[in-house]
């Protein structure tokens, strides 16, 4: 006598088939991330601080994902070694003077490695070669810098407010100049007097030109000015 119905067997078969499909799909995804299905070669670099970088994080070159972080190991108290697996198809673009830096996916995304473009005439990076690195800027350092800048801006704003308050209160030379109407009137009067003096000087000069004793002097000056003007015109006419 059969202990399992036909319906149960169908369900069991579907469950097993679904499990196999899920298993193959998982293997494919992991293999794709680890570049198991692509020819690869390895490079390495060292950092003082990897800032949360993890095995499996992406590696980018020219903005394109070209590999993954294969291993992270502490060498000593000041050095962390990062092993990278890179697609062999991009080997012809990565030079031995390229630099490795730690970036992130957006502002708060996962960490990743970024390989810079090397010199045009530099030799290619070979299997297992060590690339120079750029140390990452820590978020705490950025926040400290922003706090310092904000503090300086606050001090400057406070000092500007004090200066404006003193000016509005008539304190200091600029404040007295703005607030004291007497100083403003004196300045206006000085300007008026200068205008009058200038006008009087022009009148005296005109009078001197018509004076019998000084008429010859002014005529000589006018003649000399005319001769200079003619000398300037002659080179222009030749051109």
Would you give an account of this structure?
The protein is an alpha/beta fold and 239 residues long. The chain has four domains: 1-33; 39-135, Beta Barrel (Elongation Factor Tu (Ef-tu), domain 3), CATH 2.40.30; 141-172; 180-238. It has five helices and seven strands, in the order αβββββββαααα. It has helices at 6-33, 139-168, 172-179, 181-209, 215-238; strands spanning 40-47, 58-61, 64-76, 79-87, 99-104, 111-115, 132-134. A seven-stranded mixed beta sheet has the order 1-4-3-2-6-5-7, with no helix packed on it. The N and C termini lie far apart (125 Å). The model has no long low-confidence stretch (mean pLDDT 77).
Topology:
Blueprint: H1 6-33, E1 40-47, E2 58-61, E3 64-76, E4 79-87, E5 99-104, E6 111-115, E7 132-134, H2 139-168, H3 172-179, H4 181-209, H5 215-238
Parallel strand pairs: 2-6, 5-7
Antiparallel strand pairs: 1-4, 2-3, 3-4, 5-6
Instruction: Give the number of helices.
Output: 5
Assign the structural class, choosing from mainly alpha, mainly beta, alpha/beta, alpha+beta, or little secondary structure.
Answer: alpha/beta
User: How many domains make up the 3D coordinates?
Assistant: 4
Report on the biggest sheet: 7 strands, mixed
Q: Which sequence of SSEs, written as H and E, runs from N to C?
A: HEEEEEEEHHHH
Number of strands: 7
| Residue share in helix | 40-55%
CATH architecture of the largest domain: Beta Barrel
**End-to-end CA span:** 125 Å
* Percent strand: 15-25%
Integer-rounded radius of gyration: 42 Å
Spatial order of the strands forming the largest sheet: 1-4-3-2-6-5-7
Nearest-integer average pLDDT: 77
CATH class of the largest domain: Mainly Beta
The fold-level CATH name of the largest domain is Elongation Factor Tu (Ef-tu), domain 3
């Amino acid at each position: 006598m059969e202990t399992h119905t036909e319906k149960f067997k169908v369900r069991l078969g579907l469950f097993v088939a679904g499990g196999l499909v899920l298993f193959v799909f998982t293997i494919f995804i992991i293999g794709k991330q680890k570049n198991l299905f692509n020819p690869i070669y390895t490079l390495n670099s060292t950092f003082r601080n990897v800032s949360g970088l993890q095995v499996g994080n992406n590696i980018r070159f020219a903005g394109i994902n070209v590999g993954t972080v294969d291993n992270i190991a502490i060498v000593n108290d000041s050095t962390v070694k990062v092993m990278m697996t890179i697609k062999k198809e991009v080997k012809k673009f990565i030079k031995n003077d390229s630099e490795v830096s730690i970036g992130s996916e957006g502002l708060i995304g996962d960490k990743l490695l970024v390989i810079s473009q090397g010199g045009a005439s530099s030799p290619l990076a070979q299997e297992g070669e060590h690339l120079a690195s750029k140390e990452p800027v820590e978020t705490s350092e950025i926040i400290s810098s922003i706090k310092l800048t904000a503090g300086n801006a606050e001090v400057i704003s406070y000092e500007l407010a004090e200066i404006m308050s003193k000016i509005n209160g008539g304190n200091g030379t600029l404040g007295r100049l703005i607030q004291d109407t007497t100083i403003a009137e004196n300045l206006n009067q000085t300007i008026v007097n200068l205008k009058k003096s200038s006008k009087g000087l022009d009148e005296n000069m005109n009078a001197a030109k018509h004076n019998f004793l000084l008429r010859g002097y002014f005529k000589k000056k006018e003649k000399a000015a005319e001769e200079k003007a003619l000398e300037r015109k002659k080179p222009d006419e030749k051109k």
